[in-house]
């Protein structure tokens, strides 16, 4: 009975304060609320939902028009995202003739996460916007993630060869340690994490050597690219080494890496630079407002609030009641359109669905002024691997006003439209 009364109290609060979301112009309320933040974090409840991507794009366009946004940072690997960055900035070494061509850099599963029609439209818009600005003021597109061990090592070697750097021999010696594993990160993780035969010392030593040169304070996009690939390689080695052991360590390595990259990007773009982040809700919503904290896990949302203070950050969560999503039934499985069933009874998405009567809505949170919403709700999270038959395991206990600063609820959603890449056939 107490739980029912709490939910009814929450429902009344939502009815009073929900903002109808019928058109892109309605998003201006969220943009206005985020205007003083240096970092705006835009989430998603899945990696395969069209409306999450298009809504983030609309918010981002409005932020670019009203703030000193210098770059967009996403939950993607540095090398692949840097190919897109070259296209949107029209850098000298760009070879892509279109956004679709640039997005083909996302060639590893789950490539649809970024190589999709929704992203194609946004990337073309960003390039068009940038071409109307001076080269030094164009908005970048960068990746924060940590999976690119082999690709990053190759980029580092290529750069050191091109610049005839004295560090080339050091890099070749460091990366020679990885040769027995080919491009097999799982094999390396088992060897390094369980047997103790890894390349940690070599990777860290190279990173320190690179940081001691001018690359530690990059002055150009090429130097930034080299430094970020070096950081990605060192942290990827750490990630794969911890991944096979289980527990929270690999998750924490990954999210701490994302924040390190973010801080480096902000330093590179100057003290007044502002940025937009696109990542899953599980990364951008403060972990301390969920059961992640009890499991010893941190995330980007928590770490940036701790480092930059809450007043300098603004995080927006996303959710849906039902619809369809693009995902795989297992890691590496063929991508398919899956049904997202109606939210389970008593969840956050179920509450919004009942209150909204099938309408989309926006919510601005204030934990102190909305005590009713501090109740713990299950909040749906769908990854690149999804099983609609196991819905109960897809909900994260959350105190919503502590986890986010705002929330976008889209009652019925649709699957992304992937680009036609070979591995999707």
UniProtKB/TrEMBL annotation:
Top-level taxon of origin: Bacteria
CDD domains listed in its UniProt record: Ere-like
One Pfam family matching this protein: Erythro_esteras
InterPro entries, per the entry: Emycin_Estase (IPR007815), Hydrolase/PRTase-associated (IPR052036), UCP036794_erythomycin (IPR014622)
UniProt protein name: Erythromycin esterase homolog
């Amino acid at each position: 009975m107490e739980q029912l009364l709490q939910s009814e109290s929450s429902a009344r609060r939502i009815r009073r304060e929900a903002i109808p979301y019928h058109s892109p112009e309605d998003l201006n309320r969220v943009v206005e609320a985020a205007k003083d933040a240096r970092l705006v974090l835009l989430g998603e409840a899945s990696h395969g939902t069209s409306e999450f991507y298009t809504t983030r794009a609309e918010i981002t366009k409005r932020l670019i028009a009203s703030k000193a946004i210098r770059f967009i940072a996403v939950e993607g690997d540095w090398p692949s995202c840097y190919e897109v960055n070259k296209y949107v900035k029209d850098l000298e070494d760009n070879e892509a003739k279109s956004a679709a061509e640039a997005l083909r850099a996302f060639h590893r599963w789950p490539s649809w996460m970024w190589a999709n029609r929704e992203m194609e439209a946004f990337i073309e818009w960003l390039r068009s916007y940038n071409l109307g600005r001076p080269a030094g003021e164009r908005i970048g597109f960068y990746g924060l993630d940590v999976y690119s061990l082999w690709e990053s090592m190759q980029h580092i070697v290529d750069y050191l060869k091109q610049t005839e750097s004295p560090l080339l021999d050091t890099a070749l010696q460091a990366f020679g340690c990885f040769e027995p594993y080919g491009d097999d990160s799982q094999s390396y993780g088992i060897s390094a994490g369980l047997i103790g035969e890894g390349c940690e010392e070599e990777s860290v030593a190279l990173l320190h050597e690179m940081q001691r040169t001018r690359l530690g304070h990059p002055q150009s996009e090429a130097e930034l690219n080299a430094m970020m690939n070096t950081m990605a390689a060192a942290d990827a080695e750490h990630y794969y080494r911890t991944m096979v052991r289980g527990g929270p360590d690999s998750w924490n390595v990954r999210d701490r890496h994302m924040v390190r990259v973010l801080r480096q990007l902000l330093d590179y773009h100057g003290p007044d630079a502002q940025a937009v982040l696109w990542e899953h809700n599980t990364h951008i919503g403060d972990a301390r407002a969920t059961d992640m904290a009890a499991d010893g896990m941190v995330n980007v949302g928590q770490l940036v609030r701790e480092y930059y203070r809450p007043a300098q950050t603004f995080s927006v969560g996303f959710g849906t009641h039902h619809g369809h999503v693009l995902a795989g039934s297992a890691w590496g499985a063929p991508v398919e359109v899956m049904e997202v069933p109606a939210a389970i009874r008593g969840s956050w998405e179920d509450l919004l669905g009942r209150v909204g009567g099938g309408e989309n809505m926006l919510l601005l949170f204030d934990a102190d002024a909305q005590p009713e919403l501090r109740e713990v709700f299950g909040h749906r999270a769908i990854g690149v691997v999804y099983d609609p038959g196991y819905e109960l395991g897809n909900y994260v206990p959350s105190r919503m006003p502590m986890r986010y600063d705002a929330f976008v609820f889209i009652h019925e959603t649709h699957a992304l439209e992937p680009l036609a890449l070979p591995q999707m056939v």
